[in-house]
Amino acid sequence: MFVIITYDVGEKRVGKVCKKLKGYLDWTQNSVFEGEITKGSLDKCLFELDQIVNPNEDSIYLYRVDNPRNIKKHIYGQEKNHSNFFL
Amino acid sequence: MFVIITYDVGEKRVGKVCKKLKGYLDWTQNSVFEGEITKGSLDKCLFELDQIVNPNEDSIYLYRVDNPRNIKKHIYGQEKNHSNFFL
Asked: Is it the case that residue A87 has pLDDT exceeding 80?
């Protein structure tokens, strides 16, 4: 499946969330990760995120497309792939 | 179709981009808009964004799913729908 994860989390946790997601997906834009992932890895990733975030303050959105052919991506301007940035 | 638009634009332009997108989609998270839209409205929206952004600095990602049934959204923590925030 193809997923997009966007997040809006407290400053104290944003680094940890970002670092965790970097282990599973591509960091393509400020607080936006995307990529293909298996259900097992996604479940593991979400479980680990759950140990980091504060559900009363933070917000994580997961958009899931089971067949990657059903989603198209268009980039306008710069492709800001952060994945090669060291965090 | 269902679209997700994420953006990473210069401070001078972010307010204008956000205000423009609010006319077309739901502002669901910091620099994330989503919603159903017709091709005509999407083309108009993109044309108007093109008049605002600086392609050498800014980055707009458009994820497009033609059949809205092919994408599922899961929210973890808070649903931060900014659409009712006055900008």
From this structure: no
